[in-house]
Amino acid sequence: THSLSPCRFYLHPEMSKDLVGTHPPGAHSLVAVSVGYFLEDFVDMLCNQKLHQSWELLFHHSVVIICFGIAVLHHQYVGFALVALLVEINSIFLHVRQILLMANLVHTACYRLNSLVNLGTYVVFRIATLAWMSRWLFLNRHNVPTAAYAVGTAGMAVMTPMNIVLFWRLLRSDFFK
């Protein structure tokens, strides 16, 4: 459990004051492994899915690979990348949703429960986290070098609308049929 992002902030409260240069042992490795995961998933989608089905995720993965890659290569913004990894907590329920859809279990209590948990974790771990990250970036703009600020702002400008659109699609599909 030591490598999970929420635990890192509990066990290392100094990160809440410095997301640029401070990170606990293992955090850099966690972000590096995450880059590897996103690279592997990117290549897998390129090889096994049609582009029109996966372009949004490929774009998402490209942004994450660039942003996390900068953190890994420069040993800076690792704490900020850990905050971004909070988003992935919701991915568990997005993936369970996909599995239930593929298993044709849409009209089950399990699917309904997962839909509710998915939506709740989506709001908390995606929308609220991205809003917090955007706010942090804006409030710290004078302390962040121009290039890093540009990459971070571009990342937030891409991720936030993508996640709002996906949220709307989930709402429409699972609750407004």
Describe this structure in words.
The protein has one domain. The model has no long low-confidence stretch (mean pLDDT 89). The chain is mainly α and 177 residues long. Helix 2 runs antiparallel to helix 3, helix 2 crosses helix 4 and helix 5 packs antiparallel against helix 6. The longest helix is centred in the last third of the chain and has 31 residues. The chain is built from seven helices and no strands. The protein starts with a helix and ends with a helix. It is found in: Membrane. Keywords: Membrane, Transmembrane, Transmembrane helix. This is TLCD2 protein. It comes from Cisticola juncidis. Pfam families: TRAM_LAG1_CLN8.
Any key phrases for this structure?
7 helices; transmembrane; mainly alpha; membrane; TLCD; transmembrane helix; 177 residues
Number of discrete helical segments:
7
Mean pLDDT: 89
Q: Work out the strand percent.
A: under 5%
**What form results from the Cα inertia axes?**
globular
Instruction: Please estimate the helix content.
Output: over 70%
Multimeric status of the protein: single chain
Number of domains: 1
Q: Any low-confidence stretches, pLDDT <50, length ≥5?
A: none
Provide a concise account of the structure shown:
The protein has 177 residues and is mostly helical.
Topology (elements, then pairings):
Blueprint: H1 5-11, H2 27-48, H3 51-74, H4 78-85, H5 88-102, H6 109-139, H7 146-174
